[in-house]
Amino acid sequence: MSNFLFLLLLCVSSVFLLLSQIQAATLPSDINALKAFKASINPNSIPSWSCLGSWNFSFDPCSLPHRSYFVCGISCSPDSTRVTSLVVDPVGYSGTLTPLLSQLTQLTQLELSDNSFYGTIPSSIFSLTSLEILSLRSNYFSGNIPPSLTNLTSLQSLDISNNAFTGTLPVTLSSLSSLTSMDLSFNKLTGSLPKLPPNLVQLALKANSLSGSLSQSSFEGLTQLEVVELSANRLTGDVQGWFFLLPSLQQVDLANNSFTSVEIWKPGNANNSELVAVDLGFNKLEGYLPINLASFPKLSAVTLRYNRFRGPIPWDYYKKVRDQNLRRLFLDGNFLNGKPPAGFFVAGGSGSSVVGSFGDNCLASCPASSQLCLPSQKPTSMCRQVYGHKPSL
What we know:
By secondary structure, the protein is of the alpha/beta class. Helices cover 13% and strands 23% of the residues.
């Protein structure tokens, strides 16, 4: 009899264990949010083999193990009661965002990149104060970026690039004190740069319609900023010395704007700089080439192509190439004249290690046999119009 009771108790405990595993563990409001999220997506855009294709709400989303349902797309808290991450696969899901996503109050990561979501972002999404990563890259989202974005006080990474967002950047953007990476490139944003978040490491705002100048107040206190990508906008004015001397700056891309000058600063100020690459190509920069760039000890790539620079190529640029620091140098498409330093063209010498172009200028004695001299120099008549005489030989 005792053996029978033991076996009975064992069977009962096994049943209770099985029931506890299939009993819903996820908070009902989280389940409702996931149901609404899937329901807002066009069923024809959900392949059967995709993450959303595996979502079957007859099974609890956070219960383990995930053998057939909810095999990907979500992560849950250790106690299997709350959804903490929503990361869908890039298969072309098409639909709008449901406001009910705001019920996922423990969500730390929302990534919907490389799909076909469209419409505006519901304002309720910006109540997710635990959110650390928000990535909506490469979709069709539109509308303004609302000031309520700054309610995401835990946000560390923001990527909404390659969409159709319009309007200006929130003036309170600097209140996102946890933000270290921000990419808003390839949208239709306008206006000037506001004061930026203080702990930014990477800033990308390429291919928008931003205007105005680079204001020091926008970058004030950004001691950790390493990468700035502002190419293909409508920025104007001077590129001033303080900008290049930001303490952690490594890569700068300001190409395809309308900057008109580069400010001169004391060379010694750059001694501790981390600057590695500068691209100021396709602007309206005038005057002589900024000799100060050669004072940055780690600088290995300089692009100043297709501006309005005049005068000779500074010896300091060749010296930096000779010392095997500068590896890429693009000066083509300006009005540079005189003879470039001969060391650039010494076969087998240190100058031969540089990659770039001096073509489409007004240079004399630029060897046609050298790749650096391609494309060919401007016609003499054009150079004479610029200098008022035949360029010096």
